[in-house]
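Ticket #4471: structure output looks truncated?

Reporter: J.K.
Steps to reproduce: submitted the chain below (183 residues) through the standard prediction queue, then opened the result file.
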Amino acid sequence: MIKNIFFTICAVLICFVIWFTYNVGFFQSVEIREEQMGPLSLAYKDHVGPYHQIIDAISAVEAWAKEKKIPCKKTFGEYLDDPQIVEHERLRSLGGCVIETPPSDLASGLPADIHLKEIPQKNYVVGLFRGAPMIGPFKVYPKMEEYFHNHQLQKGTSIIEIYEMANEKDLLTKYLFEIVGKK
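Returned output as attached by the reporter:
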């Protein structure tokens, strides 16, 4: 009897793990390419703390954009520090919306905690992934690091992740690793 209960629990757990990993996109492939992108106009809030907690900053900027009737089809996180070097409580990041309106047109009447910036056109290694951003550091980042190593490229210090909902279930994340030179 106990043996049957144990095997049933194990089977349920295995099914759950398979279902979960499938639904977060763990089995999705990562497409990597070099691409010139920009300029990127960004409305953002500063965030300090663990990177997985940036959602509040992104949501606040989305709410502001909606109130001002500024389209926010894509959101982003720009991660400024290396979590293997900086303690998690001190990690700096920016979160908000990629906007089509030039920042100079929005500067007046901006709330004190929302900022605007434009990133000029740059060369990036871009990783495309259709899955949950929470597994990006485990699935995408190692492949990006391998690409930089294999192609003898030097990367910039920050990483930009752009999140775009194609529909209710299809999230595309673009991972932008700036190319700053050759090794």
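Triage note (M.O.): checked the attachment and the full token line is present. The CA atoms of residues 156 and 178 lie 5 Å apart.
Status: closed, working as intended.
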